[in-house]
C-alpha cells in the first residue's frame, strides 16, 4: 500500500508541476493568464540570447586569430560549440514557457530531448577530458608535449560527442520510441516517473564527472604546489651557489689563457649545460667561423602556457560545480522523495536553480576571456573594428 502511495505522489508531482512548466521544469504562465510575466518571458529570452552571443563571439575570435588555435584551445572550441547548441535549444524552451505547451509534436519531442541531453552531457564530458589531459601534462609533461597534436585533440573531443550521443539517444529517444511513451503536452521525459532510472541519469550527467574532475584537479593542484615549492628552494639555495662557484673555478684556472681560446669556450658551455640542462641557448659555429645562436628544442610546455591552461581549467571547473550542484541535488531529492521538492521548495526556487544549470553555458565563455589575455584582446579588437567601421556610415547619413 505504501508503494502505491509513493508512486501516486510522484505521478501527481509530475502532472501538477509540469502542467505549468516545461519538461525541464522551466515554469510557464498560469493556465488562466492571458499575458506572460516579465520574469517568465523576458528574462529567459535575454538569458538565452546572452548564451548564444557569448559563445558565437568566442568561436569568432578563434576564427579571426590563428594564435588562439593551440592544442589546449581546441578543447575550448569544442566546449563553445556544445554551449552554443545548448543555447540554441533553449529557444524551444522559451517558446514553451510563453505558449504554455510544447510547440512541436511528440516524435520531435523524443528526438530533440535526446539530443539536448546529449549536448549537455557532452559538455560535461569535455570538462572531464580537459582535466584528464591537463593531469597528464602535469605528471608526464615530456611525453604529453611530444605526443600532442591537432589530430589527437580532435580525437579526444570526438570521444565526448560519441559517448554522450550513444548514451542519451539510447537512454531517452530509442527507449521512448520502443515503449511508445506518451510525452504529453509538455514533453515529459520517460525516466522522470522512475526514481531509480532518474538517479542513474543524474549520476551519469553530473555526479560521475564531478568525482573524476575533483580527483584529477586535486592531484594537479598538489603536483603544481609541490613542484613550485621545489623550484623556489632550488632557485634560492642551489642554483645561485653552483653557478657562482663554477664561474670562480673557471676564472682561476684560465687566468693565463686568452679570452678567445676555444678550450675555454667549450668548458664554459659544458658548465652552463650542466647547470641549466638541455633547454639553455647554445652557440654553434657556422662555415664562416662566426657564432650563431640557436634556439633550444622544447620538450615540454612553457611555464606561461601551463599557467594559462591550468587557470582556464580552474574557472571551467568552478563554473561547472556552481551551476550544476544545486539542481543535481534537487533532482536527487526528487528521485527519492518527490514531495520534499514539491512542498519544500517554492516554484521561484525551482525556476532559479533550473536556469542556474543552464548558466554554465554562459559562464564558460566568460571564463575563457578572464583566463586568456590573448582572447580578451582579440574580442576587444573585434568590437573596436566593428564600431570603427560603423561610425563613418552614421556621419554620412547625418
Give a description of the structure.
By secondary structure, the protein is an all-alpha fold. 77% of the residues lie in helices and 2% in strands. A two-stranded antiparallel ribbon has the order 1-2. Strand 1 and strand 2 (291-294) form a beta hairpin. The chain is globular and about 65 Å long.
Topology:
Layout: H1 2-18, H2 38-64, H3 71-99, H4 106-139, H5 141-147, H6 150-179, H7 195-253, H8 262-276, E1 282-285, E2 291-294, H9 303-336, H10 338-344, H11 347-358, H12 360-371, H13 373-397
Antiparallel strand pairs: 1-2
Helix pairs in contact: 2-3, 2-12, 2-13, 3-4, 3-6, 3-12, 4-5, 4-6, 4-7, 4-9, 7-8, 7-9, 9-10, 9-11, 9-12, 12-13
What is the compact description of this entry?
The chain is mostly helical. 77% of the residues lie in helices and 2% in strands. It has helices at residues 2-18, 38-64, 71-99, 106-139, 141-147, 150-179, 195-253, 262-276, 303-336, 338-344, 347-358, 360-371, 373-397; strands spanning 282-285, 291-294.
Total count of strands = 2
What's the arrangement of strands in the largest beta sheet? Answer: 1-2
Largest sheet: 2 strands, antiparallel
Q: Which structural category fits the helices and strands? A: mainly alpha
Strand content: under 5%
Q: Which spans have pLDDT < 50 for at least 5 consecutive residues?
A: 1-36, 254-290, 394-398
Oligomer: single chain
What is the helix content? over 70%
Task: Please name the defining characteristics of this protein.
single chain, 398 residues, mainly alpha, two-stranded antiparallel sheet, 2 strands, disordered N terminus, disordered C terminus
Amino acid at each position: 500500500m505504501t508503494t502505491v502511495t509513493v508512486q501516486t505522489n510522484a505521478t501527481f508531482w509530475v502532472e501538477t508541476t509540469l502542467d505549468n512548466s516545461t519538461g525541464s521544469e522551466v515554469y510557464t504562465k498560469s493556465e488562466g493568464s492571458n499575458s506572460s510575466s516579465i520574469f517568465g518571458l523576458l528574462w529567459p529570452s535575454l538569458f538565452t540570447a546572452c548564451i548564444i552571443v557569448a559563445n558565437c563571439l568566442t568561436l569568432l575570435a578563434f576564427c579571426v586569430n590563428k594564435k588562439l588555435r593551440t592544442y589546449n584551445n581546441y578543447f575550448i572550441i569544442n566546449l563553445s560549440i556544445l554551449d552554443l547548441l545548448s543555447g540554441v535549444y533553449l529557444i524551444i524552451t522559451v517558446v514553451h514557457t510563453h505558449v504554455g505547451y510544447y510547440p512541436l509534436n511528440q516524435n520531435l519531442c523524443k528526438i530533440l530531448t535526446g539530443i539536448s541531453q546529449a549536448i549537455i552531457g557532452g559538455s560535461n564530458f569535455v570538462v572531464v577530458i580537459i582535466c584528464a589531459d591537463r593531469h597528464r601534462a602535469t605528471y608526464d609533461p615530456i611525453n604529453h608535449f611530444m605526443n600532442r597534436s591537432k589530430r589527437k585533440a580532435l580525437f579526444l573531443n570526438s570521444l565526448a560527442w560519441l559517448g554522450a550521443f550513444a548514451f542519451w539517444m539510447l537512454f531517452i529517444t530509442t527507449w521512448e520510441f520502443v515503449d511508445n511513451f506518451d510525452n504529453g503536452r509538455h514533453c515529459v521525459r520517460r525516466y522522470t516517473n522512475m526514481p531509480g532510472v532518474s538517479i542513474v541519469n543524474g549520476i551519469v550527467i553530473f555526479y560521475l564527472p564531478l568525482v573524476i574532475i575533483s580527483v584529477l584537479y586535486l592531484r594537479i593542484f598538489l603536483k603544481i604546489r609541490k613542484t613550485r615549492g621545489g623550484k623556489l628552494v632550488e632557485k634560492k639555495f642551489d642554483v645561485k651557489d653552483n653557478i657562482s662557484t663554477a664561474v670562480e673555478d673557471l676564472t682561476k684556472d684560465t687566468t693565463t689563457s686568452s679570452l678567445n681560446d676555444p678550450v675555454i669556450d667549450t668548458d664554459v658551455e659544458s658548465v652552463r649545460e650542466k647547470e641549466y640542462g638541455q633547454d639553455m641557448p647554445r652557440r654553434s659555429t657556422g662555415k664562416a667561423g662566426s657564432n650563431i645562436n640557436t634556439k633550444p628544442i622544447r620538450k615540454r610546455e612553457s611555464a606561461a602556457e601551463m599557467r594559462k591552461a591550468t587557470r582556464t581549467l580552474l574557472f571551467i571547473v568552478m563554473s561547472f560545480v556552481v551551476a550544476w550542484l544545486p539542481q543535481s541535488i534537487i533532482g536527487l531529492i526528487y528521485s527519492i522523495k518527490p514531495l520534499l521538492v514539491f512542498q519544500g521548495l517554492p516554484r521561484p526556487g525551482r525556476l532559479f536553480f533550473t536556469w542556474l544549470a543552464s548558466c554554465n553555458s554562459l559562464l564558460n565563455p566568460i571564463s575563457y576571456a578572464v583566463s586568456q589575455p590573448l582572447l580578451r584582446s582579440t574580442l576587444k579588437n573585434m568590437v573596436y573594428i566593428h564600431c570603427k567601421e560603423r561610425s563613418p556610415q552614421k556621419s554620412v547619413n547625418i
